[in-house]
Amino acid sequence: HDALPIYMESEKLLASVAGAVERVNKLICVRALKTRYNGEVGDIVVGRITEVQQKRWKVETNSRLDSVLLLSAVNLPGGELRRRSAEDELAMRDYLQEGDLISAEVQAVFSDGALSMHTRSLKYGKLGQGVLVQVSPSLIKRRKTHFHTLPCGASIILGNNGFIWIYPTPEQTDRKS
Fold it and tell me: Among residues 135, 175, 125, which one has the least CA distance to residue 159?
């Protein structure tokens, strides 16, 4: 497109997109409100499994392309560390199947913009009971932590991709009387 996002008209600066104005010294940018997610390494995302393929799952993460979760990038049930075998590949649908929601961390961004993710920590993995809320990724700020426990008994995962997972806080079994 020929139009610049910001232009001058009758001594006023106008933007051709609606969004938040970001200003650094004399540089003025407008960050669009409705955008697709552009992943960065280390981002926390919430996604939905769309397809089970050979040694990988395809995941919808609100980006331009489907993301990839490799079989080698997940913790096996039981937490054992070993090489993935043909039996693991056959049992992939037992771990995650189409429609399951997961939380993961972006491990790599490919040259075409597709994301590779991993769930190698106990913080990540399949999500259970809860509610998924979708907002524009531009509304989620990059922070040190995206896992929060609210005082009302709910916990929240703020995915950098605009997917927010709200779920009941698990009960602590080691309460002191």
Answer: 135
* Exposure class string for 84-109: b at 16+ Cβ within 10 A, else e: eeeebeeebeebbeeebbbbbbbbeb
d(CA 55, CA 68): 10
Return d(Cα 19, Cα 32) in angstroms, integer.
4
Alpha-carbon distance values, 108 to 20, 39, 134, 160 (Å): 28, 9, 23, 15
C-alpha span between 136 and 50 (Å, rounded): 20
In this predicted model, what pLDDT tens digit does every residue of 99-155 receive, in sequence order?
A: 999 999 999 999 998 999 999 888 899 999 999 999 989 888 888 999 999 999 999
